[in-house]
Amino acid sequence: MTSNRWVVSDLDGTLMDHAYDWSPAASTIRWLQQQAIPVIPCTSKTAEEVRLFRHQAELRDPYIVENGGAIHGDDGNGEEWTLAIGTPHAVLRPLLDQLAKDLGTALQALEDLSEAEGDALTGLRGEALARAQRRAWTVPFITPAAEQRGMLKQLASERGLQVVQGNRMSHLLGAGSHKGRALEELKRHQGKSDALVLGLGDSPNDVPLLEAVDQAVVVPGAQGPHPVFADAIASGRYQLAPAPHGEGWALAVREWLQG
Ligand SMILES: [Mg+2]
Question: Which terminus of the chain is less hemmed in, N or C, by CB atoms within 10 Å?
Fold first, then answer.
């Protein structure tokens, strides 16, 4: 972590497409690493899942997991460090059932899905699905019907919790943790309050990250950007990447660094 510029990115739907393919961004990731520009994953994924991605992408920079629940890194000598920010899963899990009762509808946690149901929701099987199901700081669950989402958010907030929506499912987490706060904690931890940050995301759970960075980029899917970003893109506050997923990610990153 020597550069003053950081690339902080969501993974699913942003760097990766819906089949978890990030190959269109691979050469740009390598180019960033050659220039010692950190590529910092900031994702809903678990630490186990991100470790595997980091290994495949040959990244050595810190990473933010479970929607800002914790930050992990290593000191260069193989020693891992963790900054815990969120509310532990053991506290959160029973509260999802309480919220379901309050709402009067079942809320189905990712960790309780069968292999076939988990595959249908995430496209993951076997150990890859298990890595996504073993949570430490969040409880992902199947997003309820649109007309119930507002009430669910309100009920969660009354219990000191929050519900955020990712690109495949929703996540229950403590009210105090989100991707933006995790970025601020990471800057403090690294002594880099002056880091110039490019942030990239695709879904409502990325809003706190995009609000916390110097340049925010919305990466669209094949059908265009998520409607939650329409105003921010129209006003120019957020930039829209010129192509979906990894391809748009790579173009936006190169433009930022060369501009
Ligand atoms: Mg996403």
Answer: C
Domain enclosing residue 106, as ranges? 89-174
**Are the CB atoms for 60 and 142 separated by under 8 Å?**
no
Token pair recorded at residue 13 = 């739907």
Residue 141 Cα, ligand 1 centroid: separation in angstroms?
A: 15
Given 174, 209, 243, which residue is the final one in a domain?
A: 174
Q: What is the pLDDT of residue 76?
A: 79
Residue 36 Cα, ligand 1 centroid: separation in angstroms? 25
Reported pTM: 0.95
Which residues are marked as active site?
10
From the CA of 71, how far away is ligand 1's center (Å)? 18
How far apart are the C-alpha atoms of 30 and 46, rounded to whole Å? 23
CA of 51 to the centre of ligand 1 (A): 17
pLDDT tens-place string over residues 93-143: 999 999 999 999 999 999 999 999 999 999 999 999 999 999 999 999 999
- What are the backbone angles phi and psi of residue 248, rounded to the nearest 5°? -65, -40
